[in-house]
Amino acid sequence: MPFHPSHLPGVYRVCMDTGEPGWQLSMPEANPDLLGHLYAGPYAIRHPDLATIVVDADGVAGYILATSDSRGFWEWEEEDWWPALRAQYPKRADDSWNKRIIDLIHAQPQSPADIVESYPAHFHIDLLPRGQGLGLGRALIEGLQQTLRELGVAGLHLDVGKDNENAISFYRHLGFEVAAEAPESYFMTTTL
């Protein structure tokens, strides 16, 4: 279903629960909002038209969130999203999980310029286990691709961890190819 502001708390929960499974037991001190501030909130707020939320009887079970213009999106984040969060979460000196995520709030990595030039859109997709294996991932990505085509966007990319072999295989099956790599991840692309 289309994004509604009432989905935001559930979207943040899904972001944390999929990004750090079992975090409540392994990292009870973790701030569960931090990952959402990075990888969910700005997309839903800036581009609600490119956000599709999976909702079931238990609430938000997943989402796809995107931007059609990565450069413009990052400029918007610098002006409108990060300043308040950087004030709320100043840099820290400890070695905690919270500190590592806060460091990203202060200097979020961006996709390589040559990737963004040819594949200007990018997205984040997450599904809780109860939403997996139902064909929702494919449907969400294909729906986003259709919307981006209608907007005249030339290409789409994402950043996926090198250790996430299932996701890499899934994206390859949908026509994405590895176009570049970072120390811990691949940038996968597809034309639209």
Structure, explained:
This protein has helices at 8-19, 23-26, 34-39, 41-46, 70-88, 97-106, 113-118, 136-150, 165-173; strands at 52-56, 59-67, 121-127, 155-161, 177-181, 185-191. The two termini are 23 Å apart. With 192 residues, the chain is an alpha+beta fold. A 6-stranded mixed β-sheet has the order 1-2-3-4-6-5, sandwiched between helices. It is built from 9 helices and 6 strands; from the N terminus they run ααααββαααβαβαββ.
Summed up:
With 192 residues, this protein is α+β, with helices and mostly antiparallel strands. 45% of the residues lie in helices and 21% in strands.
Q: What structural class should be given to the helix and strand makeup? A: alpha+beta
Q: pLDDT under 50 segments (min length 5)?
A: none
Helix content: 40-55%
- Termini gap: 23 Å
Mean pLDDT: 96
Q: Note the overall shape.
A: globular
- For the biggest β-sheet, the strand order reads 1-2-3-4-6-5
- Helix and strand succession? HHHHEEHHHEHEHEE
Biggest sheet character = 6 strands, mixed
Radius of gyration: 16 Å
* Total number of helices: 9
